[in-house]
């Protein structure tokens, strides 16, 4: 599949040149390479129809031919607008809607905003479609509060969309007078309809306003949440934490199968949406807090709160060591990590596995075909104390003999210091152990400095280490 925008440096689909099956394989392999050592990586869940999945479109207005206005997307790494008629990723209904918006704006003689000069009226158009409900929202972003002939614009827009077989549910004017690349401004005026659209996701209904965060790919979000909730093995009795919850979608999907859901999210608007969504769906066992997830969970653990299941869906930077430590202190039976970046997932897993959690498996989900993004669901179970000891031993003492397990390097070092006042390095201990026929860890065995001669254990220290080994009954 090719696209003429690609040749014009669109940059939106870096993997388009690669066959879809090969894209999926590449993503699955990437996940395996990063996290495969922690548990099995199941086949990636791709899309049957990997096109036109974006339910949200942002189009920027620019001058077109013959004094008419056009619109499209910025070319990669530039501020040049590439006119877009249709796009392989966008919902086709939204392509048609955008054509109608351009026709209506041209009929009203609206001028595109010029960033450099600060002239013109219309800046961007944001379109959203509820894939399950078919409802369509048009948000016209203007540089000034006054939209001349707003009623005529709406009338022209409804006629143009109807001609194209599209029904628009609501039209909103958003005012952004700042010199910024951020699309939406603060002020909003509803020109037609209710100012929001509804969509259904995993059996729950969501109200989506212009600024609401909402997952872009409806089909694959249902796959992702389905896997996440299934991994938590809920029975209806659990206290569930949904950390980094956005508008509460994962927690609300899980709420019917849990005793109680608590969602935590930094973005206040998203939390307001989450609370509204819970109410609107009649969900009574969910509460949402606006807070930094790390801070919130640290305070909750300090207060002795526990959770049976923790869902965590952090941004690309992943989570924090403090958050993960608190997760372990809450002692959930299951941690379900939904990741949008396998690199930070791998980093966070290194911590979680040390804290007594074991990755049962990973399922990559292709939420963004033709782009490099990879989403992964990982279920981690809490090891019981006996399993944990075994794993700790395996990780720590992987290739040591029984003799070596008798005292750690630290204990030997401390013994030597206490009895002789000498400081001995792990390397020296390793050398002496080897001389005594005790197998030592490989990494300590290798000289780390340029000149190995300098690192030979001095006789006096060797004697002290031998004394310590005798004391610990290792020789
Ligand atoms: N679970 C949601 C959102 C995931 S995106 C969904 O599936 O739709 C990650 C979310 O983490 C965003 O909503 C972002 O606002 C939030 N976030 C980022 N940093 C955070 C922090 N330090 N504490 C809490 N939430 C944070």
TrEMBL record:
One of its GO terms (molecular function) is rRNA (uridine-C5-)-methyltransferase activity. S-adenosyl-L-methionine binds at residues 215, 244, 265, 313. Pfam families: tRNA_U5-meth_tr (PF05958). CDD domains: AdoMet_MTases. The active site is at 340, 340 (nucleophile). GO terms for biological process: rRNA base methylation. It comes from the Bacteria. SUPFAM superfamilies: S-adenosyl-L-methionine-dependent methyltransferases. Keywords: Methyltransferase, S-adenosyl-L-methionine, Transferase. The keyword Transferase applies. Its EC number is 2.1.1.189. Belongs to the class I-like SAM-binding methyltransferase superfamily. RNA M5U methyltransferase family. This is 23S rRNA (Uracil-C(5))-methyltransferase RlmCD. It comes from Faecalibacterium prausnitzii. The lineage of its organism: Bacteria, Bacillati, Bacillota, Clostridia, Eubacteriales.
